[in-house]
Specification:
Radius of gyration: 24 Å
Number of helices: 14
CATH topology of the largest domain: Rossmann fold
Strand content: 15-25%
Helix content: 25-40%
Strand order of the largest sheet: 12-11-8-13-16-17-18-19
Structural class: alpha/beta
Number of strands: 19
CATH architecture of the largest domain: 3-Layer(aba) Sandwich
Bound molecules: cytidine-5'-triphosphate
Largest sheet: 8 strands, mixed
Distance between the termini: 26 Å
Number of domains: 2
């Protein structure tokens, strides 16, 4: 799967930089086109000529050493990459990326690329567990960067522990698997809803819920990474749309109903992660309501249940719902799966610590109509999105019969 894949290998300055030479060679043998970027510190460990000879490409070490005046080289390489691998990734290179610092060829190119970035850390065991490094890695994980965990063993600094760069063979095998996965939803149109809806009562007040859209946006990002054509119908949130995803902004449940139903026929897979309001004020005032003494009662009416409508009008779509529950979680989820005629459901216990609205992590139970049941323990929303999408891709491809 790596044949003709364009891979940027970024080598930062640790003793494991010498292993990046073997890595370059193995990637080239697997059929990939490899371009190497080295930091100044990496050059202290291995010469650029080694990588130039192994990759048969120029090696990039300096943002200002432009090799061809027609191109701005860090942007050109950032755009060229299908995959971006930092190996070894030092505490410094991880820290710069996590904090948006761009002061050399590696860090500027990294900020400019839209390719999936894989990070293979290598450092001293105590550096690896330092809270600053841990926090930076968690931040990057949350943003969708993929980590290739270092192995345990003898470290060059004399310690034995976690921090050794993963073996080049294992890294190549992992990229190969990722490259294969990047095609699993190719040719599929995936419609995803995200965020809350907002139901106005007057021009300055509305009813809503705490959904931030993080799960839906992670689903959109990962569906794109798996090769799908993605449309994201989003309620009001403060997140930027993932690149290469069509975003449709809506406000009310009724707007979302229209946006989704208009696109339903052409969709192959529909995932409804939005937290749609079940009720809206019956009367909406054009002008701001003035307060008066005493209590005020708002009469509410039901909104349309979009997912129910989709379930009732299926024409071959694979339909996935979400359930936000606080008690009898699995029973209620199972009931929604059946009643709304879904193919699968992701059930969240929103009362659990670190799960549901606003968090960067989630834990769920995934159930399908055909009886598959998966417990998805606490993980980042991007990781969960990927697992759910891989399940959907297998089901759609007919792998589970
Ligand atoms: N949903 C929808 N339209 C609505 C309400 C919910 O499409 N008007 C969808 C959500 O996007 C989610 C699923 O239905 O995929 C379940 O939402 P949830 O709020 O857990 O349940 P409800 O169906 O609203 O049922 P209840 O509030 O009784 O738990």
């Amino acid at each position: 799967m790596l044949t003709n894949k364009k891979i940027v290998l970024a080598v930062s300055g640790g003793i494991a930089a010498y292993k990046a030479a073997a890595l370059t060679s193995k990637l080239v043998q697997a059929g990939a086109e490899v371009r190497v970027i080295m930091t100044e510190s990496a050059l202290q460990f291995v010469g650029s000529t080694t990588f130039q000879a192994l990759s048969r490409q120029p090696v990039y070490t300096d943002t200002f050493k432009e090799q061809d005046p027609r191109y701005i080289q860090h942007i050109d390489i950032a755009d060229w990459a299908d995959m971006f691998l930092i190996a070894p990734a030092t505490a410094n290179s991880i820290g710069k990326l996590a904090n948006g610092i761009a002061d050399d060829m590696l860090s500027t190119t990294l900020l400019a690329t839209e390719a999936p970035v894989y990070i293979a850390p290598a450092m001293n065991v105590h550096m690896y567990s330092h809270p600053a490094v841990v926090e930076n890695m968690q931040k990057l994980d949350k943003w969708g960067f993929r980590f290739i965990e270092p192995g345990e063993g003898y470290l060059a600094c004399g310690y034995v522990g976690k921090g050794r760069l993963e073996d080049p063979e294992t890294i190549v095998a992992l990229l190969d698997k990722e490259a294969a996965q990047s095609q699993v939803l190719k040719g599929k149109k995936v419609l995803i809803t995200a965020g809350p809806t907002r139901e106005k009562i007057d021009p300055v007040r509305f009813f809503t819920n705490p959904s931030t859209g993080k799960m839906g946006y992670a689903l959109a990002r990962q569906a794109r990474a798996l090769g799908a054509e993605v449309t994201l119908v989003s309620g009001p949130v403060s997140l930027a749309a993932p690149s290469d995803v069509e975003k449709v902004e809506v406000e009310t449940a009724e707007d979302m109903y229209k946006a989704v139903t208009e696109r339903y026929a052409e969709s192959n897979i529909v995932i409804k992660s939005a937290a749609v309001a079940d009720y809206r004020p019956k009367q909406v005032f054009d002008q701001k309501m003035k307060k008066s003494p005493g209590d005020y009662f708002v009469e509410m009416e039901r909104t349309k249940d979009i997912l129910q409508h989709l379930g009732d009008h299926k024409t071959g779509q694979y339909l996935v719902g979400f359930a936000a529950e606080t008690n009898d979680v699995e029973e209620y989820g199972r009931e929604k799966l059946r009643k709304k005629n879904l193919d699968a459901i992701v059930i969240n216990n929103v009362s659990e610590e670190g799960s549901g609205f606003g968090h960067d992590t989630n834990q769920s139970i995934y159930l399908t109509k055909t009886g598959r049941r998966l417990e998805l323990p606490m993980m980042s929303k991007d990781e969960m999105a990927r697992k759910v999408l891989l399940e959907i891709a297998s089901a759609v491809a007919g792998d589970f019969v």
